[in-house]
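Following the same procedure, the fold was encoded as tokens, giving this record:
***
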Amino acid sequence: MTIRVLLADDQNLVRAAFALLVASAPDMEVVGEAGTGRQAVELARTERADLIVMDIRMPDLDGIEAARLIAADEDLAGVKVLVLTTYDTDENIVEALRAGASGFLVKDTRPADLLDAIRTVTAGDALLSPGPTARLIERFLRSPSTPVGGGGGPDCLSDRERQVLTLVARGLNNTEIADSLGLSPLTAKTHVSRIMGKLGTRDRAQLVIVAYESGLVTPGTGQRQ
């Protein structure tokens, strides 16, 4: 399958560089470029991209609001948003994840890692830049905000499902979760899907937020309080 990628960044040179990089991958194609968040939302609706590489700070409509509009549009339910930011201490990253982004990377990420991130997020996994993740969660995730998810909290989960959610929050993929718990990858995937249904979350990134906001795990430990 060819991954259809939309690029949203207000800097022309940055977009051009990303476009060349994405076009160099045999399993990807660039289906549009946007200089503002509003253009990104409009192109998402017309071009049917699989994933949008979204800058946070853009004129007219920033990447956070653009991600929120995309997440709220039922017709765009399959579109993933991968946020890129210049600064790994930007508190807006957490707000972007709350708004519906499926992951983030800093802009000094190696080209090959960006391509891998596009594949990871398109496949349905969360992608959180590992260096700043725990620090960001610790500083900003507990601030007052509208809770993520429309279902119950972790208390509605079985013991096994809480184990799986804890591992998701630590950044493990389905195969790693399966290995850790002695399950098959398909069973791990089924658990993750069931957890998302119970918690009313749209993807693994929001599962991470729920796990930390609820206190199921704490930054740097991955353990229940």
